[in-house]
Every structure is written in C-alpha cells, then in structure tokens.
Amino acid sequence: MFPFKSEPPSLVVSNLAKATAHPAVDEVWAVASEEGGAARDVATMSREVAAAQGKPIEVIPQERVGKLRPGKGDAMNTAIARAAEQGRDRVHFYDADITNFGPSWIEGAEAAADRGFGVVRHRFPRASTDAMITWFITKPALARLFPGTFLPRLDQPLGGEVLLVREAVESLAGSEFVRDRSDWGIDTVITYATSLMGLGLYEHHVGDGKRHALYGSLDELRDMLVECLDAARSLAGRPGPGSDARHGSDPPTPVPDDVKSTVAFDLEATKNLLDGPWGEEEANLADLIPGAMGGLLRARAEAGPSFMDAGLWYEVHGFLLDNFTLADHASESLAFRLWLTRVLAYTTNQARWGFEPAIAYLESTIDDYERRSASSPSRPAPAPRS
Ligand code: DGY
Hints:
Number of helices: 17
CATH topology of the largest domain: Spore Coat Polysaccharide Biosynthesis Protein SpsA, Chain A
Number of domains: 2
Structural class: alpha/beta
Helix content: 40-55%
Order of helices and strands: EHEHEHEHEHEHHHEHEHHHHHHHH
Radius of gyration: 21 Å
Shape: globular
Number of strands: 8
Oligomer: single chain
Strand content: 5-15%
Low-confidence stretches: none
Bound molecules: (2R)-2,3-dihydroxypropanoic acid
CATH architecture of the largest domain: Alpha-Beta Complex
CATH class of the largest domain: Alpha Beta
Mean pLDDT: 94
Distance between the termini: 33 Å
Strand order of the largest sheet: 4-6-5-7-8
C-alpha cells in the first residue's frame, strides 16, 4: 500500500510497478488523498502496468476516517480498514516518494515475517541534518515516556515503511486511538500501538538509505512538526511495551558517502524564520517556560540559537509535552519557534563535526534523556484533548 498526494505520478507508478512485480505480492493499492490530477494520472498509467503483470493495482480514494486534519493518517487507515475487512495475511506500507524502492525492501520484510515477527519496520541511514522531528521531538518523547523499552531505540519511529501481519492490521483497525489520528501523527501512533501487540518487532536495515526529496526551508515541515508533537503528547500516561518485548534488528552497514555529505535543508532560508514577529499570546506562553526562556528567545538576534543545547531542550521539550495545544495558533507558533531554535543550535554546532560524530552526539542525547527520565518520577498524563 502506498499513500500519495502530490508526488510525481511517474515516481508513484514506478514504485507500484516494482511492488506488483514481486512474487510475494498479490495486489497493490495506492491511496490517493485528492481526486483528479495526480490520482487520475496514476490510475491511467498503472492500468497498463497491472495488465502487463497480470495483477491488480487499485487506486483507492482516501476516506475520511479520523478526527484531525485529513492527511496521511486517513490514507493509512483507509488501507488498514480495507485490509482487515478482506483478511489480508500481510500488508506492506511504503511512502510513495521513495526513489530507491526495490524488491530488497519487500524481501527483507518478508524474511523477518517468515521468522515469526508480526511487525517489521524498515530502518535506514539518514543525513545528519535530516530527521529533525525524529531526533528532537519523537525520540526524546519515547525516551522520557518509555525508558528502558525498545521504543526510544527504534531507528525510524516516524517511518512509514512497515510490514504488518493480519493480527496487527486487525488490531489497528479496531483501535479508536489509531483511527482518530488522520494527520502526520499516524506514524507515531502506529509505532506505539504495534509495540504493544506482543507480535515481535524487527527492524530491517536498508543500507542504501531511503532516497527521497529533501527540503527547502524547514517551514515545509511545520504541519508535520506540530502534528507529530501532538501525537507524541498523546502517548503520555499510556503503558509501554515490556522491557522483555521481542525486538530484533539487522546490524548496521557502512553509510553511503552521499548520505553522509547531504545537507537536508536550506540553512539560510531556515535561519530567517526565527526573525518572524512574536504574537502577544505566543510571548505570554513562552514566559511560562521554566528558566526565563521567553526573554532568551526574544533576545536571540544577539545571542544566536546556540543557547538551546541538549540540556535546555530536555526542559523545553517537557514543557511542550505538557502544554502544547494542537490547532491553537500561539501554541503552534511557539512550538515551531522552539524546535527551530533547537534544530539550528545543533546544525550550526554538532552537525559541523561530520556525519559520525554528529549522529553519535544525537544518540547520546537520547540515551541521556532516557536516563534522566528513568531516574525522575513519572510524568503525569496531559489534560485530555477538549
Ligand atoms: C523526520 O524528522 O523524521 C521527518 O521525516 C522529517 O525529516
């Protein structure tokens, strides 16, 4: 199953064709978030591919399943409901924008499922300036909420590349928590929900990396940031997997040189975003952050973003987990500004050390957050969404 929106139709169809050609695959679904344009082109182009392969490729309109912004979550849940209804044995999910998708992805996941793992996630090296939501929102949240479990150590907790066996698909289809999540938060809740299923989780390593379009300014990630933050927040107070839950993973392989040297976003264009004006409500909200952060942030023009180091971010991230409100303009604007400050602090300092030291630094921050969280009293669940 491939969810798609505005990816180039030729890329989507090339991925559909590669999946269809694989002997383990019976049928391929592309869930289209919008009618017309791309959906029509993908449907037309894939008809020929399906005829040549003698297997169905269906372009399915995304249904309105959840309660938040209609987005990737609705697309995933459209396919999950359909697969559960049809009793499919195994379902693979892949993002439609992967430019190096191929049979080895399917084979790696199938092999782990054959060894008895009910959930297989693909993991892959990413540039040291890529995965900035993963490193600064999702992994810290998993570390502080579920220390000592495999969740903080999952390589790509926001990855949309996963294989699920029938039992996992049925369980997700029956979960209101998962169904409601119609936006970018879906990957977080699927990662969390599948970690509790007791079906075994394996991480299949894609040594070549996941090649896909990267970003201009980080403004492009604003929706994803606030929705992933809200999804992380929604995990607070929930139980985690047992520390003995079955988790396996392929060993890492040498990282390709071009992944090591990739710069994932436009630094100059992103720096300018911090100069955006402060709203009054946003400034008031910032004044609630412990440690006089509001004043520090507004004085940033002089200080630069470097003050937002890993230690300070632990406090700020905790404040966001406790206080963030999705769809509230001031809260979203502040969360974006804080995250951006942390990303720029890292990018203009540790990311300059080179790929290996930068990734080792990021990993050490997650280990540290996990240790700090394990040794402090558990955090209360946030107030329920109104
Ligand atoms: C992440 O942080 O993993 C998102 O994919 C954005 O890069």
